[in-house]
Structure formats: structure tokens, C-alpha cells
Amino acid sequence: MCASSERKKSESYHEKIAKELAEIRQSVDELNEFTENVVDIVREPLLALDKDLRVIKASLSFYNFFRVSAAETIGKLIYELGNNQWDIPKLRELLEKILPEKKSFDNYEVEHNFVTIGRRVMHFNARQVKRAFGQEKIILLAIEDITERKNKEESLQETHRATSDSLNILLDLTHVPIIIWDAALVIKRLNRKFELLSGYDSTEIINKKIDVLFPKEKINATLELIKNLQADDHPEIVEIDILTKDNTIKSVLWNSACIFDEEGKKIIATISQDITSRKRTEDALSLLETRYRRLFESAKDGILILDAETGKIVDVNPFLMDLLGYSKTEFIEKSIWEIGPFQNIYENRNKFLELQQKEYVRYDELPLETKGGLIIHVEFVSNVYLADGIKVIQCNIRDNTEYWQIKQQIVDSEDKFRTITENSADAIFIATKEGKYIYVNKQAIDLLGYSNEEFLTYSIVDLSPKSRIEEYFQIFQQLFSSGGSYSEIELVKKDGSYVDVDLNAVLLPNGWVYASCRDISERKIMEKDLVKAKEKAEESDRLKSAFLANMSHEIRTPMNGILGFTELLKNHELGGKKQQEYIKIIEKSGARMLSLINDLIAISTIESHQIKNIISKTNINEQIEYIYKFFKPEADQKKLHISFKNALPEKEAEIYTDQEKIYAVLTNLVKNAIKFTQKGCIELGYRKRDGFIEFYVKDSGSGVHPEQRKLIFERFRQGSESLTRNYEGAGLGLSISKAYVEMLGGRIWVESNTGLPAETNVNGSGSIFFFTIPINQ
Fold first, then answer.
1. Handedness of CA 319, 325, 329, 334 (dihedral sign)
2. What backbone torsions phi and psi does residue 657 show, to the nearest 5 degrees?
3. Residue 61 has pLDDT above 50, yes or no
């Protein structure tokens, strides 16, 4: 009775475990990849050693920092690394004496001179971690390079009585967080790096007690600790928690030294180092081992772990024991082909040899006989991977008996069903409640490009963009709660591209999911085009409104000047000098109005395609000189130095082009240069380049921002479109110039400030406008 009762309790216990943790499915498969990624993203060099102190894993940062390869590292005794450069007496003492007794050590300082990277001062941190599958422990050795910090500490000690000025320089230039506080625990100074670490600006915590930096629940303990350190002549580096301005707790190394201020008073300088990331990594590695064991023990898939060399079973999870009816002792240390259900799988060890060579064996449908004689259908997957530097084989066994029974039912009625679905215009999918496809029609195959066989190995997740899996999961959940759903989604085609579809899905009585969809890519494109057209129309309307407002401003301003000063001229008592002054203002306003009207006429003729090129022989040297002489008085009036450069002799300077258009473009560019340059110089000229004449006008003005360099050549656009801008104009000059240059077969562009060629820059600022025309001689 006792034996029977105990057996029932055991069976009940295993059933309870399997039911409680039924939701954990694929986590064990993903854990090894997760562990590898955690190690590789550690910023500090990290080694994993076996019990014999041989390297079984190294982080990417270790290879990069010590300039070694995996071939030079993995499998090596740690003391043999770098041609025995790691045979360091203090390291031997840590690993062979201290670690076996304490199980861990932190911040042991070691100084060594490496051939490849020179002298380094390092902190060694080690932990013994229990390995998976019941095997021996491993050692995680984290290496922190503190050479730079050490040098700064030594420098602080050597300059014990630093003056206030030199201390400020140190705070400004050092690359580590530093905070200065006095014997009363009042903060006196801190550098920018400490501001970034704590989140506080200096003005917020200067002259406040240092306990503002500590979590409330740890203030007393932390103050006690740093007071004890303050009393020590040689304080050690300690690890404390600080509370940042945004209430985030960070772990830091706290290294303090006594110095004197300019008055000879004793103050404390503390160098801090943020080790929050490292602490989380160490905790994560420890947690991973625990998590893996829990997942392994609670997974509802059967799992076997084999020695890749011998094929002997080293671990088995409870689900597989319960599924097949064998005890753990009947599995452990047995070769897999010695276990009844697996004899045919690895018959004569052929499959095992195949697995060793290919490192992967899969059975989508495998019948197994349990110890009780029941035939079950499973999906069987074996693969080889490294676990702590040792090759192991993981076999995942999933009970698919229900799935294959369902599939057989579908096969039995396949002909009738296929007649309906294959003639449908829609792509049709049928999947189990777990999302695994069991049927697709020809339209689905044509839509996505996968073969029927490929579809039957996939699930809904496999055809979903990774970035939208969570969204699609919610749609899937809605389907089960409401019995049906409609949505527009993207599916991944075989070539990796996406296709937009509308998806109608219903839940069938037996729990399957029936879904039909159609390609709506063209409709989506039309919708996007409509949105773009709407945005373009809105932008055009905005520009039109801005232009009209600008035109109103540009017309009213000179008109007000003309009318106002004309009225003033009616005053008979007005002196001759004042009359001439008012007449000049009226003339200037009239010229401004005429320039605006000319620009409007020019842009109108351009828009209506009524303007044509009038080609004639043109001496470009004469044009450059004429424009120089024309604008020199205006430049002199603004105290600007204007100059020109002609690159060709007179005879070669004669080309056939539209003289008036060239004149108009150069005039616009020089006029703009004078307008936007407050001091400095302006230069115009040209050069011969690749069958073109390349004209340029450069200035030392305010320059053109990168985001404006294309906009300024558009019609009705200016650097500033506000009515409160600093410069007059309708914003048509550059667009007219661009139209003229393109009509002549050239192009126009601007270079300004950053990215400007050194040989053409003007005092490191300003702009250069270029345009080209073809040489026709």
C-alpha cells in the first residue's frame, strides 16, 4: 500500500508540475542564444573559465581590448594567454587561493605590462557560478581597466595641495566623475562628468550636504561608511549607491583622497565610476543559470541533453520522463540508442554520426512507443551547440499526437475541401489554435511565394514582420475572444519583401483558424499617394499664402514711401537739401517697386514658357568687369571689399551664350551677396572646368543653413518666410536665376559654412554661389 501510495503521489506531483508550467514552451531553446548575447554585450572584458582555469568563453570586448582572437584564447590555460603574458603571480594567488575559499572576489587591483597594449592597472572581479546539467562550476572573471583612473589618482596624491585654479582645470579636463566635499560633508565642487552621472547641475547641489546624493533608506549607512573612510589614511575603494536627480539608483565605485584647498583647509576629492551596467550583467548571468534550470525543469516539451562525443544522456527533464514513462535513472548515463523509444532513430548509430557531422537532425513526425506500449506522434529536433565550451546535443521532443490526428482528418476530406478553396480568388489559410499552418491554397502560395511544403513547417509568427509580432498577437487574441476579426496587415514573402493584405479570420468550431486575404498593395500605394498629394497641396497653399502676404508687404512698403514723401514735398517751406533727400527716397522706393515688377514679369514668362534663349557672341571677361564696376559704389558704401577674377585671356573669353541671362544671374547673386554681407569681402569670377564655365560669387556674410540650401532656389521661398525677416525682397531672384541657368544647360548650387572647400572659403564663414554654362565657341 505504501509503495502504491508513494507512486500515486509522485505521478500526481509530475502532473501538477506539467499543468502549472504549461505556458513555458520555447524558452529553453532561446536561453543559450540569450546567454551568448549577454556575454557579448558586456562592455568590460569578461572570461569564463572551467575548473582547470581554461578559457571556455570570452566576450567580444576581451578580444578587442587585449587584441587577441578566439583561436588564441578558447581552450587555453589563462596563464598561457598572450604567450604566457598572463602568468601573473597576483592573478595566480587570486584564482588558486582566495577564490576557492571565498567563492568570489571584487576589485582586486593588478598591475602588469603587456607586450601588445603596454602597462595596465586592472581590477579583477570573479564569481563561481553553478553550471547547467549538474556539471562542475565555472568561474566568471570580469576585468576592468582602471589605468587612466589610477594615473589620475596618483596625480591627485602628488599634487596634494593643489590650488583652486589648478583644481578647476583638473575638474574641467578629466574624463571621470569627480566631486569635492569638505570635512562637514558639504559639497564644494563637481565636474561635468559628475553632473552627467548624477543628473544634477552644479548650481543645484553646491553647498548642500552630500547625503542629497544617497537613497533615503541608505543615507545613514552610506554616511557612516564614508566617514570611516575619511578617517583612514589610506582609504580603500568602496561600492555605494547614489540617487540621481530623476530618482534612478546607480551603483558606483567611490574612491576618495584628502587634499587641501587654496586656504589650506582639508577637503576630500572623490573619483566615481558608474558600474551599474556591470552589476546588472553579473546579476543577469547568475539569474540566467537559475532561470535556465527552472525553464528546463518546467518546460512542457521533452528535453534530452547528450554528450556530443559519446551520445550518453547527461540530463532529462520531468516532462519527457512523464511522456515516455521512464524514470531519470533509466535515462542518465545511458547511450540514447539504449533507450527503447529511440532505438530506431539512432539505429546502428548512423543517425548519431549524421548529427555529429551536420549538427542538426529533425523529424517533423516521429512515432514513439512509450514504456506502457502507447504510440504517440512527436516532433523531434536535435542540434549541437557549445555549453560552457563543451559540445552537447539538445534533443527537443514535442507531443504532436493531437496535431497529427487533426491533420489526418483533414487529409481524409481533402478532395472535397480542395475543390472549394482552390477555386477561391482569395488566399486561404487554415491554422491550429497555436498558429501552425495545416493548409494553404494555391492563391496563398502564389501570393507569398512559399511552396506548400514550406508553409506546413511554418506558423503565423514566421510570416509576420518581427516589428509587428506583438500587434498581430493582439489581433490573434481578439479572434479567440470574439470569434472573428478583420484587419489590414503585412505578410513576409519568400523574397523577404512585405505585401499588404486585408485579412478576414474566423474561429471554426473545432478551434482551428480559417483566414482569407487579398493583396491590397495597390490600394495602399494609392492611399499613400493621396496623402502625399494632400500634403503637397497644403504646402503649396501655405507657400501661396505666404507669397501673397509677402507681395502685399513688398508692394505697400515702397508705395508708402513714394506717397508719403511726395506729400512731404508739397510743403513750400521745405529746404532744397531736404527736397533732394526726399526725392532720393522716392527714387529708391520706385526702383524697388520696378525691381519687384520686373521679377514678377520674369517669373511669369518663365512659368508660361514664353521666354527663349537669345544666343550671341559674349565676352565673359567684359561682363564680369562691368558687374564689378556697377556694384562697387554700393559695396564701398557698405564698406565691403569687392573684387573679381577672370580666368581666361580675352580671346578665349569669347563664347556664344545668352548674354542677358548671364548678366541677370550674376546681378542677382552679387546683389544678394551685398545684401547679406555686413562686413568683409565679396569676390566674383569664373573658371573653366570640364567643358563648362563655372561662375562663382562668394561672400563673408551670414551663410545659408543646410536645410535652406535647396529651398532658396524654389519659387516664392526665402531663407526666412516671416514678414518680420531682416531683408527685403520677394524671394524670386534665385528661382529666376535657377530657371535661366537650366535653360542654358547648366546648374546652380550653393556651398556655405561647414563642408566648404578650404581653398574657396572666406574667413571660415559666408557662402559661395556657383553656376555653370556650357562652353560654345
1. negative
2. -160, -175
3. yes
